[in-house]
Amino acid sequence: MKKFNVLKVTVCLLIGSFMFSSCIGSFSLFNKYASWQKDMTNNKFINAIVGFFLMPIVGGITLFVDAVVLNTIEFWTGDNPVASNVGKTQNVMGSDGVLYAVKTLRNGYEIKSPTGEIVYFLYDKKNDSWSVSQNGVTKEIFRFNEDHKSIKVTANGETRDFALNEQGVQEAMIASQNDRFFAFN
What we know:
Blueprint: H1 3-19, H2 28-38, H3 44-77, E1 89-93, E2 99-105, E3 108-112, E4 118-124, E5 129-134, E6 137-144, E7 150-155, E8 158-163, H4 166-176, H5 179-182
Antiparallel strand pairs: 1-2, 2-3, 3-4, 4-5, 5-6, 6-7, 7-8
């Protein structure tokens, strides 16, 4: 076999391994570029015209970087560096009609009320659990069970498991109406 044919076969196999792997990924870089391109001006016609020229070049580069680099990182680590919102703050209207500043942290969220009170919702990767922290006091809210099909909630010394399905939601709703179970001291 000639060297040229070996190179062709190797390149085809390499391309095929990328195309037929089941690691799709989020394509965050390309999606951010496409979103920017769509909203770069207030005129959709200008956006479309500029997009015709930029998409083949910039879109191709972002797709390639996503497919080869970023989605591979996302597959092995579980996090896409471009998709990260760490450090960004959004204003969110609470069910009480008050606007809260929610800042994304590396391990959860910081929620600041208009009065200046700060509450943290934190994820502990080691224990696979979520906790709430306020004024230096941290309490675990729930943790995922090993089967990842249910969660364990401990409140007032009582522990309950809830399945992550419709029945589990119903049971949690009933338990939440029982003041004794969900009253955190």
